[in-house]
Design goal:
Strand content: under 5%
Oligomer: single chain
Number of domains: 1
Structural class: mainly alpha
Number of strands: 2
Largest sheet: 2 strands, antiparallel
Helix content: 55-70%
Distance between the termini: 60 Å
Radius of gyration: 23 Å
Length: about 475
């Protein structure tokens, strides 16, 4: 009997943690979420030294690991220092990924890793064929820690004198720097960063951390290589930005400018109508950055003060999210860019989507269509279920559902310190956060058995579309 159970456990462990990269990613995130929830349930994690309910603990752990930022308990009021440190550790693990951190630890201790593990890591960190996966893993971890340290130092100088002690200022600076770079949106203030809406230094540092964390490590590495060549020697062959990097930068720039102008124009007649122009510009710039996908806010997100048009714009930005290989969620900027390129190619009568003098493989276009359809289906199902379980207005439900799927953390009141969501609503939002962080395709591949590519093709069939 015992031997039979051991064999079954061995088979389950092998399929779960030594299967496809998709299955490993899902299993790793689920395991860390479960561990985090168990720690957050302990009386040690709450200021009142009482047990936290399992649903709230799972919700908070999922929000931290999936770097979302939605809360059902006040981060500064409910959670003790231990609980806040657990949340911070989960944010860091979720931002980088448990497999990436595990590989980095193995590198530090000079552990020998199998070729199978190296192949898995290559898929997880999205390394190209010419890349050394261990060099890329080392770069990801070292760059993250370095930029978070620089961001924390900059925030410390911006917040000097705002807290009762130097150590409290250091703690707030480190917490918000990690939360910003990992695009988590957790804050030690109940009103997020609304108290610093007119602070140029705080807005600039937080926005920079969010943008760098959201464009992806591959893009950052390309930019660093190009910048180093330009600033230093300018000798030899000039590094070329990849098509991926160009697309990420182009789409990110367009979304940031469009979001800034939209929020500035619309909210100047609503929540920012009485604010000076300095605060209007800073708030509009900040809120165009944070929906993708950090979740901090410097203006009130409530339905009573935020214009419906702004809420719709933010929902669109939250759905798009950041870029592949980053700490952000959403369908990703490259997905939007390729979709637009595919539409343009169709209108021009071209056979393939094109951008920056390169053709996009049909397989990539098909994957983009699958991502958009599966993501839209997940959001629609989530909103539908929430409308059944909750009594909140449609806009509030849709906003928080898209925020959960996009791993953003902005809320119009369905969640928050005074959470109005039911137990079933919290579980639905938890599932949306998990699906949004890993991606619908990853979840589908994790439960599907990998099959070899078919060596045959069926004859083409004519179908009318449009």
């Amino acid at each position: 009997m015992i031997d039979s159970l051991r064999r079954r456990w061995a088979v389950l462990y092998e399929k779960t943690f030594h299967g496809s990269p998709a299955r490993i990613a899902v299993s790793s995130f689920a395991a860390v979420i479960l561990l985090g929830a168990l720690l957050l349930m302990l009386p040690l994690s709450s200021r009142a030294r009482v047990w936290t309910g399992p649903v709230d603990a799972v919700f908070t752990s999922t929000s931290a690991v999936c770097v979302t930022g939605l809360i059902v308990k006040s981060t500064p009021d409910h959670w003790s220092l231990f609980g806040q440190l657990v949340i911070l550790a989960l944010i860091q693990i979720g931002g980088l990924g448990i497999m990436t951190l595990g590989a980095f630890a193995a590198i530090l201790f000079q552990r020998h890793l199998s070729m199978r593990f190296e192949s898995t890591m290559s898929d997880i960190v999205e390394a190209h064929a010419a890349d050394n996966v261990w060099v890329l893993v080392r770069f990801v971890c070292v760059f993250t820690l370095l930029l978070e340290a620089v961001g924390a130092l900059a925030l410390f100088f911006g917040w000097r004198g705002s807290f009762g002690s130097v150590w409290l200022c250091v703690y707030h600076s480190v917490f918000h720097a990690i939360s910003a770079f990992c695009n988590a949106g957790f804050s030690l203030n109940n009103n997020s960063l609304a108290d610093y809406a007119d602070s140029i230094s705080v807005n600039a540092v937080i926005c920079l951390l969010i943008i760098v964390g959201g464009i992806g490590f591959v893009v950052v590495r390309d930019l660093l290589a190009y910048g180093t060549w330009w600033a230093a020697s300018r000798r030899g062959k000039r590094p070329r930005l990849s098509t991926h990097t160009k697309l990420v930068l182009a789409v990110t720039g367009v979304l940031l400018v469009a979001g800034f102008l939209g929020i500035l124009v619309i909210e100047s007649n609503f929540s920012l109508s009485e604010a000076p122009w300095k605060k209007r510009i800073l708030a509009a710039a900040f809120q165009s950055v944070t929906p993708r996908t950090a979740g901090f806010n410097t203006i009130d997100m409530g339905t009573a003060s935020l214009a419906p048009a702004t809420a719709f714009l933010l929902m669109a930005l939250m759905y798009i999210g950041g870029s592949p290989g980053s700490t952000a969620g959403g369908i990703k900027t490259t997905t939007l860019g390729i979709m637009v390129a595919s539409i343009v190619a169709t209108l021009k009568g071209r056979g393939k989507a094109e951008m920056f003098h390169h053709s996009i493989p049909e397989e990539t276009v098909h994957r983009v269509a699958s991502i958009i359809l599966l993501s839209a289906a997940a959001v629609v199902v989530g909103i539908f279920l929430l409308l059944i379980t909750e009594t909140a207005p449609f806009q509030k439900v849709a906003f928080d559902a898209i925020s959960a799927f996009g791993t953003v953390g902005l809320s119009q009141g369905l969640t928050g310190p005074d959470c109005a969501a039911t137990v079933w609503g919290r579980l639905i939002l938890t599932c949306l956060m998990f699906v949004g962080r890993l991606g619908p395709i990853t979840l589908v591949l994790s439960v599907a058995e990998l099959k070899e590519r078919a060596v045959y093709e069926y004859p083409e069939g004519r179908v009318l579309v449009g």
